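We modelled the chain as a single entity of 273 amino acids. Its sequence is:
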Amino acid sequence: MPRLPMLAAVLLLSASAAHGSFVVFEAAGADAAAITAARDGFRTAVGGDTVAGPNGSFGGQRREINWDGVPNTLADPAPMPGDFFNSTSPRGVEFSTPGTGFMVSTNSGQSSPVLFGFPNDFQTFSAQRLFTAIGSNVTEVSFFLPGTSTAATTSAFGLIFVDVETISAKVEFFDQDGAAIFTRDALQSGNQGLSFLGAVADAGERIGLVRITAGLNTILSNGNLGNPNDDVVVMDDFLYAEPLQVPEPPVLLLLGLGLLAGCVRRGPRRDLT
């Protein structure tokens, strides 16, 4: 193989190196005490202060969302915009769903019943609000430099599920190119129970998208489910490492790709005599 095409091939190989592993933190049980140690272990592994700064920032290393920063005007029955935590409260995440939108539960004293109208199914880890997609059990989380449209990645993500009674809740991570790099089911907690599931990159992996599947059922509106039988699961706190800007491709990699493309276009030299 000629020298320059070989260089390009080596650079291409290094760009698609195998992904490493993630360190998992998980627990489930009847109340907040059952999962707090796992949540705290995740926090320690990610790093950051113990007291939140503006916009859920913990020392510039970790961000958290407990949904209580969402105003009453954007709580049940009103939808919460998917970009609320990148525009209004810039924490570097935006949400999307195949459903019709997102909703946080009401605080006591508001017009809609608390806990999405299901007081016998849900409790909170951090009172008072919970979070759910509407009309779907899937929530996707994209990352940005907080308050901007600049794409970002993170090295860790965790959350609290509420009411995982069957194997029906899971988290999937994808890298910035859309390749799957991690998946794990949440532990079952029983009726009204809490489950924590988080994972921290152990070999330099970068998470560009998180897909959360919460239960087998859907919430359509306060007190209304997609069907009367399947397990319905909602969410409480989200925790993740500070989003960082997606790096530009290395100069040498771009050079190698250009050289390889040039060789392919030219093809072998022919002697026409």
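As a brief sanity check on the tokenised model: Residues 162 and 194 are 5 Å apart (CA to CA). The chain has one domain: 3-11+19-265.
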